[in-house]
Q: What sequence folds into this?
């Protein structure tokens, strides 16, 4: 086995080397500057390497060395609060080492080697330990970081320590093997679990249109396609901020630098609504912007997913956002075309569908090896060219995911945010999650939701008539229906991400708001029968109060007040 | 290095802009190349693919006149741009040579034109208003320092006029900041070149500008480097000299055509509509050079202009651009036909970073609400036009008629402005308030009460 060779050819990020005999996906260092790369093809003596850094100035004949191991993520305390590039180099460390611009040939370990962590064992000397079992804990900021027995280690605990250690120091000896807090895991391989099961609870996000109308199950996968400028990124950021997952992994994959900056400046300033701690304390950001090396972009989603799985294995609920999977697919396409592979649809490699499903299949709710339940919910943004979802990345994604949040440019033009279209979005989790809503929100919830969806559906039918003959031609009860559906849209579905109150809406309040709209609808129909005019009904002051209430800090009291107002004011109208 | 580089007369193949050289010593990827033709003239190029057996060189000026006997010299370094503060006021070719008859640039530094990516960690959030003097931009699609906000136009639309007007009027308000414009023209016609040069000189805008002009008949390969030269200059002025730099690039479509041409010559597998699969990454390497860096005073802001082939916003060029840039200003042929300049279609325009650069202390407290209100009322008014076409104006309610009227006066008074009309943000907002005052109180739903009381003009 020869591990030192020479460069034969350089063509952009693809370098061919001779003289090494690597396995597929082994990490190699290329050239005098030791640029990191990965073997992606082997032809005879030629190893074809995708390099994660810019290759300008690299010459044939320069040395290549094979590390003999695949691309791994470093897992252990210190992940949270980190901001990495696509191959888990901490961006802050990179800035220290090479300034404001990303230069090359700089390696930086994913986990801080100096920092000491207080390790508290929970198994004792002489205990029998299985792979993946929790052997101790460390406080990682405010989160309990559970140290897992590595998957390839098992047996009797020969020795276990208490106290302050770095991630590389031995904290235990199990079955004759030394165990440290850090473990390495190849990013392209899913981490094992004991058993995966059916999702049965929603990922609560505080966004009304998602939680009530189109919920994603914890452990499920959702896709947000949408042309540019439809509010995809804002939606994802809202999810990262507010969803009830304990850990958030946010992968900015091939996206805008300034947008990442927004995330990087906003997240540390944000408070976790549940604990009051900074949101960053439970977040890992991976930022590989569109102008950073394309091969590292390809790797970034795997790096993120492996970290997510690691926290799932500790028994946490993880939300993983990938923004955007289209950029990832494009990275695959770019590398594939440099390899002169036979292209599939639209130049994407033929293995696109396979790679996408492998990725989304890593979303799950499961009992992990340690016996605790954890989940990974994946929200993948897709950026279809021209907003046309018939293209391969969208289509292959929709075949796999069960929730589709359709973002709509028309809604953006109307300044209807979030721009999730209520007619074309869908969730296939409704029946699985029904019990949860009945038990945790209100037994009337499923019926109420169905009513709202029906009303919106009716509106779109009525709108067609209005387009032809004008709204004056409609009978009064249908005019009221239109008014009610407008309230559903404007009060309930529209939500202002930048308003301090409206940005997060708890489940109970969501139910209350929708119930009030239903109440308005019922009373309005009664008032009509009693002889009130549509104009009078629309003009009741409580309706105006309702419209404004969602930005008031006292919204919950307001809603109770509006409920009373409805009773009184409709009584005057005879209902 | 240059002294030790050897000459080769081993060209094996010439295809499009590419020259294939058999060689004897290792050549670096991206290395600069000079080719001496049999008539003694010189051409420059860059290494695209290098191996022990063959080196592929892309010739910037095109390969015409090169024969297999031409001698190829590898210069041992990658392409660099000489930069200095004295560049302000200069007009250069697309290859960075003086075009204004002035002396060559005496470099203070020579910088790699590819430019490294700004570490996202080092970036600073764009949050300072740049006033362009155009109401539809300042008020409704605000440009902020460090942003990249393209103008999506079409052939025959006055995007170059708008570009020039912005170059002339753009300013950073309030503080004592140094402001500069880097104007990058790619694939423009000779006539356009004359217009740009005279306009820049006539209006005095040139003294704070560096102009790069790559003409339509310049070789495709040069078009690829022109924006990189310009952006390298911009980065130098922003991050070394601390200036607020606005980069205007026109026309990105020509740049992409050049990319496609070179891709085809290299026999690459094409992506959508024949454009190379790496076009997204390639465009990102231009656009992403906009930004601010923590602890540095300057900024690079970009207004790339691109003409959408067939006015099709889903065409790969506007589409990929839109995914990288932070919003877009869309020009409308309909408005242009109606004689409105600048024909900005506000409904499909967007500035993603507007939130950070507007409001109290940046522009004015009521800015956000006013902008939302204009959007909403204009959208409703425009919808009603469709309805009126079917049922006639008589069947509209009084309120709807107001919205319909609003859409008309919005286009006439707010969107329309003179070629030399430089509106401050206050001017734009007060026009907006005048328009809003034609609506009924209950139609003004997007502005908070206290601003309505403070700013709404008395109705007659």
A:
């Amino acid at each position: 086995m020869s591990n030192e060779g020479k460069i034969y050819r350089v063509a952009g990020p693809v370098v061919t080397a001779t003289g090494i005999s690597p396995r597929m996906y082994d990490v190699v260092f290329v050239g005098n500057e030791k640029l990191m790369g990965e073997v992606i093809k082997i032809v005879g003596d030629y190893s074809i390497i995708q390099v994660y850094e810019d290759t300008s100035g690299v010459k044939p004949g320069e040395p290549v060395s094979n590390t003999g191991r695949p691309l791994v993520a470093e897992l252990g305390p210190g992940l949270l609060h980190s901001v990495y590039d696509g191959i888990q180099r901490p961006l802050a460390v990179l800035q220290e080492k090479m300034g404001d611009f990303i230069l090359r040939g700089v390696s930086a370990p994913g986990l801080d080697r100096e920092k000491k962590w207080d390790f508290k064992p929970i198994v004792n000397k002489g205990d029998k330990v299985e792979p993946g079992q929790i052997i101790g804990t460390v406080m990682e900021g405010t989160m309990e970081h559970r140290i897992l027995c590595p998957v390839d280690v098992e047996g009797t605990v020969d020795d276990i320590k208490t106290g302050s250690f770095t991630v590389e120091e031995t904290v235990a000896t199990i079955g004759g093997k030394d165990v440290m807090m850090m473990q390495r895991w190849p990013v392209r391989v899913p981490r094992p679990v004991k058993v995966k099961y059916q999702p049965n609870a929603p990922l609560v996000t505080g966004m009304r249109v998602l939680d009530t109308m189109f919920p994603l199950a914890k452990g499920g996968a959702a896709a947000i396609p949408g042309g540019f400028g439809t509010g995809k990124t804002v939606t994802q950021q809202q999810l990262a901020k507010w969803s009830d997952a304990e850990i958030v992994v946010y992968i900015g994959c091939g996206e805008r630098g300034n947008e990442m900056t927004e995330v990087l400046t906003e997240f540390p300033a944000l408070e976790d609504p549940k604990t009051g701690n900074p949101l960053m304390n439970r977040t890992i950001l991976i930022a590989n912007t569109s102008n950073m090396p394309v091969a590292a972009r390809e790797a970034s989603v795997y790096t993120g997913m492996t970290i997510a799985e690691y926290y799932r294995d500790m028994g946490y609920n993880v939300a993983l956002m990938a923004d955007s999977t289209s950029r990832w697919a494009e990275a695959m396409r770019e590398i594939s075309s440099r390899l002169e592979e036979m292209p599939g649809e639209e130049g994407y490699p033929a293995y696109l569908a396979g790679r996408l499903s492998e990725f989304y299949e890593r979303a799950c709710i499961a009992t992990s090896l340690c016996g605790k339940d954890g989940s990974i919910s994946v929200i993948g943004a897709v950026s279809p060219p021209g907003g046309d979802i018939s293209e391969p990345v969208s289509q292959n994604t929709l075949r796999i995911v069960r929730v589709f949040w359709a973002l709509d440019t028309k809604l953006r033009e109307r300044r209807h945010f979030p721009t999730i279209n209520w007619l074309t979005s869908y969730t296939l989790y409704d029946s699985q999650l029904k019990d949860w809503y009945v038990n945790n929100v209100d037994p009337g919830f499923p019926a109420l939701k169905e009513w709202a969806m029906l009303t919106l559906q009716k509106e779109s039918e009525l709108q067609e008539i209005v387009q032809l003959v004008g709204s004056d031609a409609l009978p009064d009860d249908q005019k009221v229906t239109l008014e009610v559906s407008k309230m559903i849209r404007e009060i309930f579905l529209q939500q202002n991400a930048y308003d301090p109150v409206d940005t997060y809406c708890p489940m109970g309040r969501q139910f209350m708001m929708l119930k009030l709209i239903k109440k308005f609808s019922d009373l309005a129909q009664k008032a009509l029968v009693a002889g009130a005019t549509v104009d009078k009904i629309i003009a009741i002051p409580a309706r105006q109060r309702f419209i404004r209430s969602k930005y008031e800090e006292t919204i919950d009291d307001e809603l109770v007040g509006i409920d009373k107002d409805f009773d009184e004011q409709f009584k005057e109208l005879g209902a | 290095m240059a002294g030790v580089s050897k000459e080769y007369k081993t060209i094996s193949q010439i295809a499009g802009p590419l020259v294939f050289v058999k060689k004897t010593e290792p050549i670096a990827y991206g290395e600069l190349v000079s080719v001496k033709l049999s008539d003694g003239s010189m051409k420059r190029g860059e290494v695209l693919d290098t191996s022990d057996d063959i080196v592929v060189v892309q010739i910037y000026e095109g390969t015409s006149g090169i024969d297999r006997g031409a001698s190829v010299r590898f210069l041992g370094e990658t392409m660099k741009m000489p930069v200095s503060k004295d560049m302000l006021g200069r007009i250069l070719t697309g290859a960075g040579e003086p075009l204004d008859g002035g002396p060559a640039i005496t470099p203070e530094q020579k910088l790699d034109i590819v430019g490294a990516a700004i570490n996202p960690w080092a970036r600073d959030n764009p949050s300072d208003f740049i006033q362009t003097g155009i109401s539809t931009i300042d008020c409704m699609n605000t440009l902020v320092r460090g942003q990249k906000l393209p103008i999506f136009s079409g052939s025959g639309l006055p995007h170059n006029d708008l570009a020039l007007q912005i170059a002339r009027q753009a300013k950073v308000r309030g503080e004592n900041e140094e402001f500069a414009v880097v104007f990058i023209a790619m694939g423009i016609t000779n006539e356009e070149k004359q217009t740009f040069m005279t306009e820049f000189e006539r209006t005095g805008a040139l003294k704070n500008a560096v102009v790069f002009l790559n003409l339509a008949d310049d070789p495709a390969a040069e078009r690829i480097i022109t924006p990189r030269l310009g952006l390298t200059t911009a980065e130098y002025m922003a991050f070394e000299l601390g200036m607020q730099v606005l980069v205007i690039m026109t026309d990105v479509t020509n740049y992409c055509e050049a990319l496609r041409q070179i891709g085809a010559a290299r026999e690459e597998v094409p992506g959508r509509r024949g454009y190379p699969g790496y076009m997204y990454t390639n465009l990102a390497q231009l656009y992403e050079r906009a930004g601010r860096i923590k602890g540095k005073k300057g900024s690079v802001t970009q207004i790339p202009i691109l003409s959408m082939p067939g006015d099709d916003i889903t065409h790969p060029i506007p589409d990929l651009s839109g995914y990288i840039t932070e919003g877009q200003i869309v020009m409308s042929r309909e408005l242009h036909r109606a004689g409105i300049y600048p024909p900005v279609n506000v409904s499909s325009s967007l500035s993603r970073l507007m939130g950070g650069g507007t409001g109290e202390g940046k522009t004015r407290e009521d800015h956000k609400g006013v902008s939302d209100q204009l959007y909403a009322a204009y959208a409703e008014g425009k919808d009603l036009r469709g309805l009126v076409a079917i049922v006639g104006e008589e069947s509209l309610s009084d309120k709807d008629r107001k919205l319909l009227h609003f859409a008309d006066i919005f286009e006439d008074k707010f969107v329309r402005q003179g070629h030399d009309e430089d509106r401050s943000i206050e001017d734009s907002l007060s026009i907006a308030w005048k328009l809003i005052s034609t609506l009924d109180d209950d139609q003004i739903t997007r502005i908070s009460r206290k601003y309505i009381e403070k700013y709404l003009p008395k109705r007659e």
